[in-house]
Each structure stands twice: as structure tokens, then as C-alpha cells.
């Protein structure tokens, strides 16, 4: 009972808003490697105020309807193949929070949110968060993406989560703005800054619109021409960005980081709000 009271006390409104992040997670190997991306995630974890919990919208949990993980001990999901045993051996034993899951579900009134006890933490979540909070001492939850719904639906649903920023919950969208694995140039995977012209052009457009808080064109990304069709052949890795954007307020500073390309057709470009 005392633990429950302590946690509900932590969820009280704080003086300072939590920041919001969209993070390009890229390869699952970033979860165990020391590179420019993971080092930035480590830096973030050391410099932000410790959140009372983390809620991640991952590109790798696509569902019919919206769900939130509600178990007290979420499992580590290895939702990939063809990688070294070292990656499959990773366990990230962060606790969950049934209480926060219920509170999150209550915040969303535009649809019914189911409490999930089967999923856990997929690599879109743990590959990042284990660098940010290596002690696994912060509860971590995931919110699923209803893949039957259009981009505006996700943006508007995410706005209903704004109260979490006031209560010390760190919200992260985890995906990649530009994500076309079929067009990856595997011969140039390790070439720094190697991006196809269309990827670079669209990435610059995305950054300008994010920094100028022009969300309409980002929601209607399919109107941005051929480059957008190539960059977003399916929207699973793009939708998490909309969840982050929707939590922006007029006073938020916006900063870009990990602004790099991988294999020509994938961008790791990420941003922070607040």
C-alpha cells in the first residue's frame, strides 16, 4: 500500500514539464553498441530530470485498436532475426506500472484503450531506454499504434496524453522519419552521412517543418511528393513521430539531434521538445 501511495504521489502535477522525444532507433544493434546514436541516448538519460515513468510509442507494436501495457513486469521482446546471440541475450528488467496504464487509458477519451498483459518491451523501446536508464529503475510502458487509422487520428489521440508531461512521465516516439529498408545500400552501411538525394531533401523539409511547428504538412505527409512515397513506403515508423509532435506546446524549444543517414534510405534524425 505504501508503494502504491508513493507512486501516486509521484504522478502529481510538477512545476516543470517533462520533455518529449522522437527518437530514430534504427538497427536493433544500437541497443548494444557504443556509437554516436547510443551515446546521445546515454547523455539524455544523464541530463534530464529523472521521470517517474516512461511511455513509449514504438513502431514495432501495431494493433487493431489502442492498447497500453499494464503488467507489473514487462518482458523483453526480441522481435527480430538474423542478429548476434549477444543481442538476443539482452534483458531489460524495468518494471511496468498497472496504475499508470489505467491512468493513461482514462486520459484517452476518443477511443477505448485496452489494458494489455501479453506484449512487453519491444526493441523499439528497450534498445533506446536501456541506454538512457541502464539501471532499469524507471517504470516503462508502451502504447500501441492502431494501424487501421490514418495519421490525423494518431496526432489527435496523442494530444490527449499531454497531461502526462505535467506529471513527470517521459513520452517517447520511437521510429524513423525516413525508413525504406528495401532501398538500403548495404555496401554503404558504414559510410558516414551517406544518404540518397531524395532522402536528404525530404529530411531537410521535415526538419524545417518541425522547427517551425508546421504540423499540418507533417500529418499530411503523403502530399509531399515522390520523396515522401520513397521515404515512407509504410507509415509504421513514421507514426511515432506524430505522437511526439502532438505533445508540443507553443513555448517548447525544439532541437534536432542524431541527424544522420544510414545506408542511403534511413534517417536517424531525432528531436526534443522542451
Average pLDDT number: 94
Looking at CATH, which topology would you report? Protocatechuate 4,5-dioxygenase, Chain B
Instruction: Assign a percent range to the helix content.
Output: 25-40%
Q: What percent strand?
A: 15-25%
Give a quick rundown of the structure.
The chain is 33% helix and 16% strand.
Topology:
Blueprint (H helix, E strand, L loop, with lengths): L1 H9 L9 E5 L11 H12 L5 E6 L3 E2 L2 E4 L15 H4 L9 H10 L5 E4 L6 H10 L7 E3 L2 E2 L4 H9 L3 H4 L2 E7 L21 H15 L3 H5 L6 H6 L7 H7 L8 E4 L3 E2 L3 E2 L2 E4 L1
Parallel strand pairs: 1-8, 2-6, 2-8, 3-7, 4-5
Antiparallel strand pairs: 1-12, 9-12, 10-11
Helix pairs in contact: 2-5, 6-11
Structure description:
The protein has helices at about 1-10, 35-45, 85-90, 100-105, 125-130, 150-160, 165, 195-210, 215-220, 225-230, 240-245; strands at about 20-25, 55-60, 60-65, 65-70, 115, 140, 145, 170-175, 255, 260, 265, 270-274. It has about 270 residues and is of the alpha/beta class. It has a single domain, classed as LigB-like (Protocatechuate 4,5-dioxygenase, Chain B). Strand 10 (about 260) and strand 11 form a beta hairpin. The longest helix has 15 residues, at about 195-210. The protein is globular, with a radius of gyration of 18 Å. The two termini are about 35 Å apart. The mean pLDDT is about 95.
Amino acid at each position: 500500500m505504501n508503494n502504491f501511495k508513493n507512486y501516486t504521489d509521484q504522478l502529481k502535477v510538477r512545476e516543470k514539464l517533462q520533455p518529449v522525444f522522437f527518437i530514430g532507433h534504427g538497427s536493433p544493434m544500437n541497443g548494444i553498441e557504443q556509437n554516436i546514436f547510443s551515446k546521445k541516448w546515454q547523455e539524455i538519460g544523464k541530463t534530464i530530470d529523472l521521470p517517474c515513468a516512461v511511455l513509449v510509442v514504438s513502431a514495432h507494436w501495431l494493433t487493431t485498436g489502442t492498447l497500453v501495457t499494464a503488467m507489473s513486469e514487462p518482458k523483453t521482446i526480441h522481435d527480430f532475426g538474423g542478429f548476434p546471440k549477444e543481442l538476443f541475450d539482452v534483458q531489460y528488467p524495468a518494471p511496468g506500472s498497472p496504475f499508470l496504464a489505467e491512468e493513461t487509458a482514462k486520459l484517452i477519451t476518443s477511443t477505448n484503450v485496452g489494458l494489455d498483459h501479453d506484449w512487453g518491451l519491444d526493441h523499439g523501446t528497450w534498445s533506446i531506454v536501456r541506454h538512457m536508464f541502464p539501471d532499469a529503475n524507471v517504470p516503462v510502458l508502451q502504447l500501441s499504434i492502431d494501424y487501421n487509422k490514418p495519421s490525423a487520428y494518431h496526432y489527435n489521440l496523442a494530444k490527449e496524453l499531454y497531461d502526462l508531461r505535467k506529471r513527470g512521465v517521459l513520452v517517447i516516439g520511437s521510429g524513423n522519419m525516413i525508413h525504406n529498408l528495401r532501398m538500403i545500400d548495404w555496401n554503404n552501411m558504414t559510410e558516414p552521412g551517406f544518404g540518397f538525394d531524395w532522402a536528404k531533401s525530404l529530411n531537410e523539409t521535415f526538419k524545417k517543418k518541425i522547427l517551425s511547428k508546421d504540423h499540418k504538412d507533417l500529418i499530411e505527409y503523403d502530399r509531399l511528393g515522390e520523396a515522401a512515397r520513397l521515404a515512407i513506403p509504410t507509415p509504421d515508423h513514421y507514426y511515432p513521430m506524430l505522437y511526439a509532435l502532438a505533445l508540443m506546446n507553443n513555448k517548447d524549444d525544439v532541437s534536432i539531434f542524431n541527424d544522420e543517414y544510414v545506408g542511403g534510405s534511413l534517417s536517424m534524425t531525432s528531436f526534443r521538445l522542451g
